[in-house]
């Protein structure tokens, strides 16, 4: 097996002791970290091994996005400055309901290229619809080298669903057969691409789906050890949906078997104090999406309360139309800063906690934090890591590497990305994909969908566009 020694980096391990090596090295053999420590110890220990000098770099574990809509990157900038219901019903659902499989594939490729270039090495897709072609998402993950936990949509039509959900585009409406289809995809694709692909259930939101189907899904998940991801309590109206069950939101979710260590609930802006202990007791994970929640005016997930209660909180970018960048450095920064301001407390959600959310907490949420897993840089774990080169004025001085990463770094600062032992980004250039071709194909796919959806005349700049000189 090929070996490589990455040397002379500042390494933020996020191990149990949260050690930082100011002049550290990592030995990678195949796809595994075989040794890690100070350069003065490792370099003489492994003479003759190929080296990669990372002097003046900060190395962190590969970043993990616990919420993503991979198809949506070709819709970036198509639904800005509108409320969530209008965003979904009038734009995003319409486009997603008319997309073709090849266009969905191009959307996934564009998303993955952006994530890799920005240091995201693992992502959780939440709702890949039948019409997109699940094999296209698997193909995009396999070709690119990224890790993907891929949520295949599970839904039916609840006759008592909230009124706005009846406005879902007919091209996205699917029935209870989606559960069997998701199981089939799990049987076919879980573990492919050298284990980089994991297949999940991607459940539609309670109220829009029948309790009968959600209960059966949870039973199947428990029996087969399949993980579940689901949007929940994203906006205030979502909280009102649970009144029909005469239970609190988490009481209902617990009653159908949804709450468990195999479940990631997304957004959770409107979870109440009484339900937080239920999340902790069941080991349920949360995906916090600060940029999306801010842009859509959805609310504020009570992250400080969740962390204090011992609930595991990861972090996600959501989709490009509600962000508009898949930049986990931005998400870490926002996750720290917005809660300081909202709570009038500069001590909540520290830089260290934000980095944990994007690394080891994300790995825990995906069930990938154990031996041979990801989320921290330790002997025996997968060689997934990111190197940030300190080469720009906004990055220096660097007195505290964690603060530099969380508060003074963006996706464009990423220099090297290694996933499963393979170098996918080097010198800021994507090696596993043709970035120029990916962008070109994504632009063409987006335009084709918008035209077919009948939105070409609506998705235009709000200010007047001058296309020729006035006469």
From TrEMBL:
InterPro entries: Amidohydro-rel, Metal-dep_hydrolase_composite, Metal_Hydrolase, MTA/SAH_deaminase
The keyword Zinc is annotated on this UniProt entry: yes
Key word Hydrolase present: yes
Molecular-function GO term, any one: metal ion binding
Keyword terms: Hydrolase, Metal-binding, Zinc
Location of the Amidohydrolase-related domain: 58-423
Name by which UniProt lists this protein: Putative atrazine chlorohydrolase deaminase
Biological source species: Coleophoma cylindrospora
High-level lineage: Eukaryota, Fungi, Dikarya, Ascomycota, Pezizomycotina
